[in-house]
Amino acid sequence: MTRTILITGASNGLGAALARHYAAPETYLALIGRDQARLAEVSQACQAQGAKVYIASISVTDKQALKQWLEDFDTQYPIDLAIANAGITHMLSPQGSGESIDAIEQVLDTNLYGLIYTLHPLIERMRARRRGQLAIVSSLAAWRGMPITPAYCASKAAVKAWGEALRGWLAPEGVQVNVICPGFVKTDLSDQFPGKRPTMISAEQAATRIANGLKRNQAVIAFPFPLTWGMWLVAVLPFPLASYCLGLFGYNRPRTPKPVR
Question: CA 197, 199, 205 angle in degrees (round to 5)?
Fold first, then answer.
């Protein structure tokens, strides 16, 4: 049976790993990413595995261009699974200076509005078909804001709440919605993180866990296990104790660079 899957942020990292995971005969992959060269490489790898691949070098922040492309594609190849994965991060400087308003806007535009721009054009189409699945990539950082990445945590908390609300609304109409909350995954994004990165897993391992969770229609797909429970615990602890726990891993303030000798 032919299946059509959309993945944003597919040019590298987790998005590329998801594309390779789902690539198979009788699978149409719609891959969106900003890095055209890397996107072409991912496309070639997926085609070698038997998938039919369509790529688009569109920023998820370009609302009109993205909407037009999605609607045109979905008309020809109705999307069964849409994985809104594109995202960026930003953090305080090692000197502790705050995020600029431009940096905050960029993170929110990509992680929050870009995700909404990706999925919103598909909601009514899936409702009309009474089938489909929307996968929202959030983060374990959505459970408790970390002082070193304020805008990133805010964006991921927002999409987590939006996804949970959509699931309750759309489930009776045959549309599945799943929120994905990864911990540390070995990608360019995680490499920018200045604190400790416990229980880090590869992008390929993360893609497998996500695919398994989507197949079971899990409401929230959170991993890896030890870090998941740790973030849940921090979310319910009194604020001073939670801050102390985050500080143990370097999540309260950026690390000051060591002087060059």
Answer: 115
Distance CA 159, CA 136 (A): 7
Q: Contact at 8 Å (CB) between 91 and 255? A: no
Rounded (5°) CA angle 231-187-184: 15
**3-state secondary structure string across the chain:** CCEEEEEECCCCHHHHHHHHHHCCCCEEEEEECCCHHHHHHHHHHHHHCCCEEEEECCCCCCHHHHHHHHHHHHHHCCCCEEEECCCCCCCCCCCCCCCCHHHHHHHHHHHHHHHHHHHHHHHHHHHHHCCEEEEEECCHHHCCCCCCCHHHHHHHHHHHHHHHHHHHHHHHHCEEEEEEEECCEECHHHHCCCCCCCCCEEHHHHHHHHHHHHHCCCCEEEECHHHHHHHHHHHHCCHHHHHHHHHHCCCCCCCCCCCCC
- pLDDT (tens digit per residue) in 197-251: 667 899 999 999 999 999 999 999 999 877 776 677 776 777 776 676 666 556 6
pLDDT digits (tens, 9 = 90+) for 79-110: 999 999 999 988 776 666 789 999 999 999 99
C-beta atoms surrounding 48 within 10 Å: 10
What span, in angstroms and rounded, lies between the C-alpha atoms of 31 and 29? 6
Helices 239-248 and 225-236 cross at an angle (nearest 10°) of: 150
The model carries a pTM of 0.89
